[in-house]
Amino acid sequence: MSLALSSTPPRVPSFYALTRQSLAERFAERGFPAYRADQLFSWVYRKRHRTPDGMSNLPASLRASLTELCELALPRTASVLGTVDGHTQKFVLELYDGARVECVAMRTERRLTMCVSSQVGCALKCSFCATGLMGLKRNLQPDEIVSQVVAMGDFHGWRDDTFNIVFMGMGEPLANLPNVLAAIRILHDERGLNLGARRITVSTSGLVPGIEALAEAELPLGLAVSLHATTDALRDQLVPVNKRWPLRELLAAAKRYGERTGRRVTLEYTMLAGVNDRMEDADRLAKMARDLPSKINLIPYNPVPGIEYTRPSPEAIDAFVRRLYPQAPAVTVRNTLGGEIWAACGQLGGLSPEA
Fold first, then answer.
1. Of 70, 115, 129, 345, which residue is the catalytic one?
2. Which of the residues 70, 71, 102, 115 is marked catalytic?
3. Given the DSSP bridges, would you call strands 112-115 and 100-107 parallel, antiparallel or unpaired?
4. Residue 343 has what pLDDT?
5. Phi then psi for 222, rounded to 5 degrees?
6. Distances (CA, A) of 73 to 160, 212, 255, 279
7. In angstroms, rounded to a whole number, what is the distance separating the alpha carbons of residues 48 and 113?
């Protein structure tokens, strides 16, 4: 069952947009006690029921009226593309207005990680990112964010006791922060998926007020800063939002966030051949990392049609890493997953293999 396509929102709210409190309030309006909301949360999030059928501890009158209180259906999965090794899947979900959003499930030996989108498209126009070429279509609502997690979990049969969520898909999460936080609180609910805040990472291209607001949410969420350059001159070209909040302001906000939450901030650094992979770049990056509680995640560039950047050679990446290691507190190189299905970092919203 899927949401009917329409230019206007559904007449009843999606279940996946509702907190337990707001669901209990809707039930109370119909004369049902608040604990029925706890039961429905359990049926949907714990027992994986997507229709009222079989919800045996709910009275028949409530089951019969559920469709008038909330919509249990998920958005239609338009396609699922998988890699040959079966470790990565890209999901394309079709929303009520016909807009499509992509999200990615990635499995390693240690865990399943779900890469979630926060917007349809993106307004920030980072020069190496396929999503930026789309422009911003619209923000996603809380249910459209939660539904991505539920759809990917259903696909994998919820066989993972623990999984991580990273807001690194389409869009700038801090430009849609109220809806992102609303979705996180639903996912975090102990009667729902009970997803620990430390298993959630929110990425930003550098919206300093959003970082401050995220810190005020009083959740120990991971923060990833899409840095990609160590000078304002280069970052202005790669990440244009830097012209509004330059590196000095961004790194100061990241430091405050790390100190307030007790979490190390991840400095994401996409490596572009001949652009930001010199030894002096490594030296400046290491100094930035030492000045705040942080770790560095190097991302070898993933190609996007129509964008002329290239990935550094393995030798160049190795030399950059060796330059960082004695100086920086922690360094990892991201293992590219999903590149063959245009699902790797920076590729969402671009061409798919079947296009």
1. 345
2. 102
3. antiparallel
4. 63
5. -70, 145
6. 23, 35, 41, 52
7. 19
Model confidence at 349: pLDDT above 90: no
* Cβ neighbours of residue 72 closer than 8 Å, sequence gap 6 or more: 15, 44, 50, 51, 52, 66
CA end-to-end span of the chain: 26
Q: Which of 107, 89, 78 is nearest to 338 (CA)?
A: 89
Amino acid at position 350, single letter = G
- Does an H or E element contain 259, and which? helix 247-261
Burial class (CB in 10 A: 0-12, 13-18, 19+), 262: exposed
**β-strands 136-139, 119-121: how paired?**
antiparallel
* Residue entry with tokens 């405050």: 256
Q: Per-residue pLDDT tens for 309-325?
A: 999 999 999 999 999 98
Q: How confident is the model at residue 306 (pLDDT cuts 50, 70, 90)?
A: confident
Q: Does 102 qualify as catalytic in the annotation?
A: yes
> How distant, in Å, are the alpha carbons of 137, 226, 262 from that of 332?
33, 15, 20
pLDDT band at 10 (very low <50, low <70, confident <90, very high): low
What are 121-141's pLDDT values in tens digits?
Answer: 999 999 999 898 889 999 999
> Is 103 a known active-site residue?
no
The segment with the largest mean pLDDT, out of 153-167, 240-254, 317-331, 337-351, is: 240-254
> Which domains, ranges and CATH numbers included, belong to the chain?
19-69 (1.10.150.530), 76-341 (3.20.20.70)
